[in-house]
Amino acid sequence: IDPAGNVVSSLIFEEVSSCFIGYDDGLIRCANYHEGTYSFISCKNDELKIVRKVVIGKGAACHQLIPYKSGSIGACLKRDEMYIFDENFEIIRTVRFPEGSGPRHAAFSDDGRYMFVAAELSDELFALDTDDFRIIDEIKLSESGVPAAIRLQDDLICVSVREADLVCRAKFSDGRLSIEDIHSCGGRHPRDM
């Protein structure tokens, strides 16, 4: 869509729409929860073109696909895994999480040394060292919630928690996570912030 609101290019590449779409430097990244796919779409010279579609499998619940170094990293909720893709959109590494945790969304520290992951099924926040992608700490976010989005704000890790209708703010210091405070979101089922 151009600045005047005109559609200049369109592309049908899924039977059901993605649950996550991100754009960075001419590349659109899509994660499709229902199809269990990750799609990479070129957006150059007002033209959309599918570069690669990676099929993980129906029921895998692919939930996020974000830039990481020269490639990407995607969360796969029902497989308890995250996949690291190289610049050619090939999976080069699988990061495994505890069974039943359900990694949903991730964010990186400013220096890229740590990755923080909101796990939907276990209601936890994980901290991983990106040198080897090992989990170095984890904390429970609430007693009855479903973590959704994760954002970094200054030195805080903010996680929206659906069903409990909260925003949890955590700190990461000396390799340890701790809950800083918890606030009502003032609404119902916060999916993003």
Average the pLDDT over all residues and give the rounded result.
Answer: 93
Report the biggest beta sheet as strand number plus sense, adding barrel if it closes.
4 strands, antiparallel
Number of helices: 0
Estimate the helix proportion, in percent.
Answer: under 10%
Q: Give the helices and strands as they follow along the chain.
A: EEEEEEEEEEEEEEEE
Short description:
The protein has no helices and 16 strands. It has 193 residues and is mainly β.
Describe the structure.
The strands form four sheets. Strands 1-2-3-4 form a four-stranded antiparallel sheet, with no helix packed on it. A four-stranded antiparallel sheet has the order 5-6-7-8, with no helix packed on it. By secondary structure, the chain is mostly beta strands. A hairpin with a 2-residue loop joins strand 3 (37-44) and strand 4 (47-55). It has strands at residues 20-24, 27-32, 37-44, 47-55, 62-68, 71-76, 81-85, 91-96, 103-108, 114-119, 124-129, 134-140, 146-153, 156-162, 166-173, 176-184. The radius of gyration is 17 Å and the shape is globular. The model has no long low-confidence stretch (mean pLDDT 93). The protein is built from no helices and 16 strands.
